[in-house]
Recover the amino acids of this structure.
């Protein structure tokens, strides 16, 4: 599957009403921090990946957008309107998947979706059936009897079924198997191609980078970075672990461009590599290599790599 | 918007099993008590009851056991009927907002194009419908047993009045539960408030009434407006019913005002 390239952000974005805009958005739960001044702007028609570790404030942000909770300070605008003021008229234009999709278990998915469709002003039956078929969900099973992933499918259907202008999805792929994840990404891509905006949260970059145009990282209630996915991908940041058959000197990879946070520990070298792997491979080839492990870095590693050094500076740490 | 697609209709569908169970239970209780009346109304037993201190009997909800209206008012409509009705109403009222919220189910509903007012008021509407259905079923059950059980002297009009008062008492407690639940979002607090008001209100009505100094306590007890006017004897007490319905509505409105302003699910 190809990632979504060629998305052109509207020029002069100021003149276009952002799909979502927050300014210094702050939420306190008593003494606890929910959000600490979040600035966010999502352009109409884009797929925005909202990333952050546990407790960063993703769900808090999303529930503020839906007017389920109210800000302590700062402003929120969704489709150009204030959620608190616009009320039901605004929510009609939004498809929402809660992070924790819980509904009355005694009903069937069909009953629930028909009811929600009614609140939304009517959703054609065939669209329900088509979505259920694509996601391979039995609409007539009681929701209580569904597995976690199948329950999540019900949540996805209710978010997508009225073809809303804006989709706000809190960890949409949690619980989905890889095949259903593909189907979900297909739904996101189609929504995006139809000009709809998708705002979705996740813990991991890999989950959103194939469908998102931009990703934003929230940490400790603040937006710490917003980047185009292509830019992030181009930086190709990987975490690696190389095991040698012998002990290697501490300066074994010294001078290799694109390295960060290198730890040399006897016969093991760990670190983060950004960009081409060739110089690293050439450098380690002097010693017998037992194994090379390369994996996706954590969000923090990606964005530390991003914001530690200015663009274009490849100097190793 | 059809009923099928309304919050009210959906709420009723989700509650149909509980409603059915209560309809059967309450009718069974009513029929059981009624069928004992012929035995209870024998002069011997009446005399035996009269030998107890009247205040004691009244505290237990027993008055004029020898008459059909007195008997039914002391038995079915005395404690078991109100207890069963209030339990169902309070359960529905707590569930309506606080229960849904603590269960994490309210988010999805409030994210739909419905206002919080609509959710709260339609759920209150569903509660009123449930209580009305319960009253009709109870009325039919009592009416059909009243002939065989020698309770016919009460008459269908007063019997209807009694069941309406019972349903309205249910609406009052259900409204209290819904309103407090909407304001606080806490099942525990709501359950506590309903229990305190229920037990306190009952004793304020029965025990405080004879004592002049605290006689006013009776006037703020919902039970006073439920049975004080003796609807089984004197028919529907419009003013009493109005007091209960208006105060219940007020509680629901105040609770919803708070609900509309507060965070949900925190
Ligand atoms: N109802 C609440 N009461 C008190 N604190 C809360 C409440 N909800 C969230 N918080 C706090 O606010 C912060 C942000 O929580 P939030 O749920 O938004 O995180 P998140 O980014 O969605 O995390 P996760 O990835 O685990 O879902 C956390 O520190 C959390 O403890
Ligand atoms: Mg979350």
């Amino acid at each position: 599957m190809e990632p979504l390239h060629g998305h052109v952000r509207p020029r002069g974005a100021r003149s276009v009403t952002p799909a979502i805009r927050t300014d210094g958005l702050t939420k306190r739960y008593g003494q606890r921090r929910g959000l600490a001044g979040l600035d966010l702007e999502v352009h109409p028609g884009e797929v925005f990946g909202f990333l952050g570790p546990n407790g960063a404030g993703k769900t808090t942000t999303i529930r503020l957008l839906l007017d389920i909770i109210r800000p302590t300070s700062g402003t929120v605008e969704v489709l150009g309107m204030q959620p608190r003021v616009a009320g039901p008229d605004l929510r009609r234009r939004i498809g929402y998947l809660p992070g924790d999709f819980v509904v009355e278990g005694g009903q069937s998915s069909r009953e629930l979706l028909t009811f929600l469709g009614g609140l939304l002003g009517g959703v054609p039956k065939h669209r329900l059936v088509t979505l259920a078929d694509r996601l391979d969900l039995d609409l007539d099973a009681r929701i209580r009897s569904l597995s976690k992933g199948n329950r999540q499918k019900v949540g996805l259907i209710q978010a997508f079924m009225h073809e809303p202008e804006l989709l706000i999805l809190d960890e949409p792929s949690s619980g989905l198997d890889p095949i259903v994840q593909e189907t979900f990404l297909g739904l996101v891509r189609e929504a995006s191609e139809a000009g709809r905006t998708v705002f979705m949260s996740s813990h991991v970059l890999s989950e959103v980078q194939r469908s998102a145009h931009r990703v934003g990282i929230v940490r400790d209630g603040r937006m710490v970075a917003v980047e185009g996915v292509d830019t992030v991908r181009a930086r190709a940041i990987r975490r690696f672990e190389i095991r040698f058959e012998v002990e290697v000197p501490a300066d074994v990879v010294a001078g290799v461009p694109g390295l960060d946070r290198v730890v040399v520990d006897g016969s093991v070298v760990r670190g983060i590599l950004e960009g081409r792997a060739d110089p690293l491979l050439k450098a380690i080839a002097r010693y017998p290599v037992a194994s090379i492990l390369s994996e996706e870095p954590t969000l923090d590693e990606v964005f530390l790599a991003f914001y530690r050094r200015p663009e274009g500076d490849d100097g190793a740490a | 918007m059809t009923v099928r697609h309304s919050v009210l209709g959906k709420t009723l569908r989700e509650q149909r099993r509980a409603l059915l169970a209560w309809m059967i239970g309450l009718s069974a209780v009513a029929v059981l008590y009624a069928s004992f009346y012929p035995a209870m109304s024998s002069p011997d037993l009446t005399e035996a009851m009269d030998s107890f201190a009247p205040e004691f009997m009244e505290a237990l909800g027993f008055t004029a056991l020898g008459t059909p209206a007195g008997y039914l008012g002391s038995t079915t409509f005395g404690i078991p009927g109100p207890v069963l009705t209030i339990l169902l109403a309070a359960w529905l009222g707590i569930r309506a907002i606080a229960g849904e919220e603590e269960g994490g189910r309210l988010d999805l509903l409030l994210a739909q194009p419905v206002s919080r007012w609509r959710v709260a008021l339609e759920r209150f509407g569903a509660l009123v419908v449930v209580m009305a259905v319960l009253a009709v079923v109870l009325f039919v059950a009592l009416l059909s047993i009243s002939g065989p059980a020698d309770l016919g002297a009460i008459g269908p009009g007063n019997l209807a009045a009694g069941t309406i008062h019972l349903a309205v008492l249910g609406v009052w407690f259900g409204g209290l539960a819904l309103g407090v639940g909407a304001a606080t979002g806490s099942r525990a607090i709501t359950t506590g408030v309903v229990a305190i008001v229920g037990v306190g209100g009952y004793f304020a009505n029965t025990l405080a009434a004879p004592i002049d100094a605290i006689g006013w306590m009776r006037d703020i007890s919902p039970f006073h407006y439920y049975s004080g006017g003796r609807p089984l004897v004197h028919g529907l007490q419009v003013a009493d019913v109005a007091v209960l319905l208006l105060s219940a509505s007020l509680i629901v409105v105040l609770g919803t005002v708070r609900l509309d302003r507060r965070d949900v699910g925190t």
Observations:
- Chain B has a mean pLDDT of 85.
- Chain B touches chain A at residues 1-2, 4-7, 10, 13-14, 103-105, 107-108, 110-115, 261, 263-266 (CB under 8 Å).
- Residues 7-261 of chain B form one domain.
